[in-house]
Amino acid sequence: MATQDDAANKQKAIQNRQDQHDASMQKGGQGSGGSGAAQTGVQQPSGDFPAQHLAKPGLEAQMELKPRFMAEQYKGSGKLAGQVAIVTGGDSGIGRAVAILFAREGADVAILYLNEHEDAAETQRYIEAEGQKCITIAGDVKDMEFCQQAVDQVVAKWGRLDVLVNNAAFQEHAESLLDLTEDRFDETMRTNIYGYFHMAKACLPYMKRGAAIINTGSVTGLKGSKKLLDYSTTKGAIHAFTMSLAANLLDQGIRVNAVAPGPVWTPLNPADQSPEEITKFGQSTTFGRPAQPEEMSPAYVYLASNVCSGYVTGVVLPITGSVGE
């Protein structure tokens, strides 16, 4: 049986092949200027970002410019008091920010992640600092057996399961469809959509009326992406899966929604784009900058809490940083 380290090494190998291909093409990065980025709330980083390229799956601890995930001005009010949540890909990025706010709202949180042990341990410390319990479980969501065992472990420990956040993802750009091997396409598909299917299937028997499933989609699933052919395909599938599962589970009182972020400053992106390209990350949005994870996480709280969104299901909520998307 393949391990989580095998999966991480496979993803690094895909990345290395693409990096070598990019170098052979001798293409420089391009992007619009970063001046005049919009700030409508807490002041967030803008302008050119550090020219950095991370090895997959990408450690937040190694990022030169650390993502902002604490949402210090967000005050919890018990919206998830006494509940238990699972967040896949919860070690860093959007998943970390969501897990911390869930804890601030009173939930105990299980973090599922691939092999980014340093990031997962850091996220656990932040959750426990919010006064809630946290466990971290390493494994590969492509593996249904792992997903089932992880969910069983969470329920055995805490006796319930109220919220699932499907967030784990694999992304690697390609200039051409011809660059996408069967193996590479399969890695993206099995991580991004099979992983969501596996987790939802494993969690469903434990979920009761009032429970919620939240999937992380993407603006690329709404409008496509020239260089993310396989990734954007999976995100479109996630949106359709969300709406279909929402209709399927409504009679059971379980809501299913998705958030479709635009560019967000997480390890996923410097682990994909070249150092030259990443400096201009997010500057093509109407805001002129990428979002920070803390600008995404309150939406997940809203969709998790049946007090806030009890009449909302089957929605793909776009938070893209661009007008009309």
Automatic annotation (TrEMBL):
SUPFAM superfamilies according to UniProt: NAD(P)-binding Rossmann-fold domains
Matching Pfam families: adh_short_C2
Presence of keyword DNA-binding: no
InterPro entries in the cross-refs: NAD(P)-bd_dom_sf, Sc_DH/Rdtase_CS, SDR_fam
Keyword annotations from UniProtKB, A to Z: Oxidoreductase
KW rRNA processing (keyword) present: no
Positions of the UniProt region annotated as Disordered: 1-53
NCBIfam families for this protein: PRK06701.1 (NF005214)
Family: Belongs to the short-chain dehydrogenases/reductases (SDR) family.
Designated name of the protein: SDR family oxidoreductase
